[in-house]
Amino acid sequence: MFYRPEDGHGLPHNPFNAIITPRPIGWISTRDTAGVNNLAPYSFFNGVAYTPPQVMFASTSGKSDQVESKDSVSNIRTTGVFCVNVAEYAMRDAMNASSAALPKEVDEFAHAGLEAAECATIDCPRIAHAPAALECRLTQIVPLLGQDNFLVLGEVVGVHLREDCIKDGRLDVLSFQPLARLGYRDYSHVTELFEMTRPDD
């Protein structure tokens, strides 16, 4: 099968998201200038550089109560900061609840039943019991092709690691089983690992 996206795929559901899998979930927390906390999961998310450490996420739709894009991007645009919380398997229902399209004055932490904690280096909330959280300062917001598509880039300026997830000096992903987004309504979580040594190591 071959298709050009501009012509359509002819399938019952768009296969694009199912092709690019698995994708880590960036659970982005922000705060608006009125002090309202916001929390939303984004599966177009990844780390993009080591030194200095940098991350990205993309927002791909708008909201009727925002001028453009979603609450996360609007808040980051005005405050210049955000936090990336790692979504673990045990928090899957809360993550899903926080994806609801709620009015901008609603606190998704409360809606999803999650405890918020203050970040250490930026004025922003984080999920108190997340396995890891990355405090970020905005570096760029890049408009992408299409309506309300934005790429957000940030420098990581603070890192929280939950103590029970550190084993033998390493962050042990099996201890919290990070969630991954697949295509359609499908998700997965990490339950086993294997190791490979690069040829140059």
Brief description of this entry?
This protein has 201 residues and is mostly beta strands. Helix content is 12%, strand content 35%. The strands form four sheets. A seven-stranded antiparallel sheet has the order 3-2-6-9-10-5-4, covered by helices on one side. Strands 1-13-14 form a three-stranded antiparallel sheet, with no helix packed on it. It has a two-stranded antiparallel ribbon with strand order 7-8.
Describe the structure.
- Residues 18-173 form the Flavin reductase like domain.
- GO terms for molecular function: FMN binding; oxidoreductase activity, acting on the CH-NH group of donors, NAD or NADP as acceptor.
- InterPro entries: Flavin_Rdtase-like_dom, Split_barrel_FMN-bd.
- With 201 residues, the chain is mainly β.
- It has a single domain (21-189), classed as Roll (Pnp Oxidase, Chain A), CATH 2.30.110.
- The protein has four helices and 14 strands.
- The strands form four sheets. The chain has a seven-stranded antiparallel sheet with strand order 3-2-6-9-10-5-4, with helices on one face. Strands 1-13-14 form a three-stranded antiparallel sheet, with no helix packed on it.
- Strand 2 and strand 3 (37-42) form a beta hairpin.
